[in-house]
Amino acid sequence: MSSSHHDRTTRAADLMHLNAMALEETEQSLHTSADQRPGAAGERLHRLADTMTETAGDIAERARGLSDEAKKREPRG
User: Fold this and answer.
1) C-beta of residue 34 within 8 angstroms of C-beta of residue 42
2) Are 49 and 34 in contact (CB under 8 A)?
3) Among residues 45, 14, 18, which one has the least CA distance to residue 32?
4) How many other CB atoms are found less than 10 A from the CB of residue 20?
C-alpha cells in the first residue's frame, strides 16, 4: 500500500477522533441543558444527548479500526 494511502488513512482516523471528541463535548452540554429543563423538553434533550454518545462511540470505534489498519500498513524503513 502506498505511503499516500497510509497518510490519508491516518488523517481520516485523526479527524474521526476529533469529531468523536467534539460530539462527546456537545453531549455533555446537552445533558447540562436538559437538567435545567423540566418535563418533556429535558427528557428529549437527554435522549438526544444519549444518541450523540452512541454516535461518538461508533465514530471512535471506526477511527480505531482505521488507525490499526494504518499501523499495519505503515512503510518500514
Assistant:
1) yes
2) yes
3) 45
4) 20
Q: Which residue has the cell 494504518?
A: 70
Quote the CA–CA distance of 14 and 36 in Å, as a whole number.
34
Threshold 0.90, pTM exceeds: no
Q: Provide the grid cell at 33.
A: 441543558
C-alpha cell at 30: 446537552
Q: Which three cell numbers stand for residue 39?
A: 418535563
pLDDT in tens, 23-52: 999 999 999 999 999 999 999 999 999 999
pLDDT at 2 (0 to 100): 58
